[in-house]
Amino acid sequence: MGMIKEPREVDLSTKSEPWTEQELADFRKIMQGIKSKNAKRKQRMVSGNNKRQSVR
Amino acid sequence: MENQYDKGLDFIIDKFTNSIENTLTSEVFDTEVVRLSFVDAKQIKKSNWQFNWHKELMDNTKEVYKLTTVNNPTIIQGLLSIEDKHDHIFMHLIESAKFNKGKGKAYFGVPGNLIAYACKISFDKGHEGFLAFDAKSALIKHYEETLHATHFRGLRMFIETNAALRLISKYFRT
Q1: Helix (H) or strand (E) holding B159
Q2: This prediction's pTM
Q3: What DSSP character marks residue A40?
Q4: B100, B78 contact by CB (below 8 A)
């Protein structure tokens, strides 16, 4: 584990501002796309494992 | 009017550890993250923190967590406030203790520990690691590089599944 270079001249803590409905809607679209890809990848891995097991 | 670029989270990921490291002695201390409730408010002395953590504790929609070393659970190293948005976790606040800020900070690794924990909660709640937050403009690139966070728009950023898994595997060894 190595050191991560960090900007030094910045205060350390602030807060998130609430996201607008539009921002949330757009974010959710992106998120759903990634989650759907995750699900497909998972499905492929499961079916790949099942195939390997049936060959043995 | 406050410049939008002065807003946003600006926690600094100083080191990837599953513990925190004394900046002077390099001594490493195991850490734990514990949820706080309103009855724990007395553990947080207002003058020691930039944000109003008592207000966060009173807000039922938010969950507040403290990071301490295992050996010294009374000294809070950092605080985190998150909200379950039902399909992701939103990080409202994160703050290192006064003595963990700036060039003279006592420990490395406080914000990273807390963010990895927030990602872990996201998985535990079935949100596949998704964590949304705001970043200060100067630190967007820093978070892209250290957290593998995705810059969404403006100050908005998020951590997706693969990035969350990377963080968790660094901080929470099984």
Answers
A1: strand B156-159
A2: 0.85
A3: H
A4: yes
The answer to whether the beta carbons of residues B1 and B96 sit under 8 Å apart is no
ipTM exceeding the 0.85 mark: no
How far is B134 from chain A, CA to nearest CA, in Å? 5
CA distance B39 to chain A (A): 23
DSSP B124-154: HTTSTT-EEEEB-GGGHHHHHHHT-PEEEET
Domains of chain B: residue spans and CATH? 18-171 (3.40.630.30)
Over residues B98-154, the pLDDT tens digits come to: 998 888 888 888 888 899 999 999 999 999 999 999 998 888 888 898 889 999 999
Q: Which residues of B touch A27 (CB under 8 A)?
A: 88, 132, 152, 156, 158
- Number of residues assigned to chain B: 174
